[in-house]
Amino acid sequence: MQAFRTLPLAMLLCLPACVFAQERPPADLPEAPKNQNGASVSGTIEDQNGSLLPGAHVELQSDHDTVMETADDEGEFHAEGLPAGTYTVRVVADGFDGENETIDLQEHEQRALSPIELKMTGNAASVVVTASVHDIAMAQVAEEEKQRVLGIIPNFYVVYHANPAPLTAKQKFHLAWRSTLDPISFLGVGVSAGLEQAENEFPGYGQGADGYAKRYGAGFADSAIAGFLGGAIYPSIFHQDPRYYYQGTGTFASRARHAIQSVVICRGDNGKMEFNVSNVLGNFSAAGLSNLYYPASDRHGAGLTMQNAAIGTAFGAFAALMQEFVVPKLTPHLKSRLPKDND
Description:
The chain is of the alpha/beta class and 343 residues long. It has eight helices and 14 strands.
């Protein structure tokens, strides 16, 4: 019988509810060095009277990237992990004129800007600062893209906000691309392919460089297909959120039940809980598509596809338990965003 094959650790953590493939022993990924060149920018947004402006939008734009941040309840924002370069800092808030500032960041620099003052538009006497659902989702996704286990392994598909904004289809595909093309994802596939070759799994691929390339290609296809089907395509079609919603409070049994149920119950884009058709259908579709590129000698028909989909669902439940109880403790800079009574 064909062996069950797990996805690399990076994809397992990113998509706890969308994992499938053919079995292979788990492999610890070698630690990669943290980005030592990241700079940071922080500041406070206020009006001309010195009152703080929570919810103001901050955009840091360079020639290579654009970073979106939202001022917190204290009117403060903080952007980190920025490459060195010249940035245009643009601050906007409803009812106020925008403000632009240009800064040059050096490697490792931690820049604290002077308070940024926004002036009221026209003769407005008061203002209520609001943000669109799309903008809020963008800011939250930007935070999620900074989530890395041990500061290395991408963990973008986990929500720690109490009431996160729903993702647009474009944002769902953006997360899928970021997860699939992350350097650690490529590294994880490479390690897994090497272990398969050492144990001569899928012997139809042969040995040598050609055999390794085929195993690597199949492993990357597994990760990409599972990621896009369960994390972007089906969630966009069925209007469901592909992310895991961290509970963090309550009894152990309550949290464990929440994690396990996430493989079959998810939050729709309308905010209601519903059957997780995106994950279930994604597991079966991905398991079936793998028969198109695995060696003929390792294909065993619909029975194995059903078995792999079921095992993939079980792995999704295990990964969700890890997200609920273990991963937050291994993710830097996350403590301030966790519920107050988190273990």
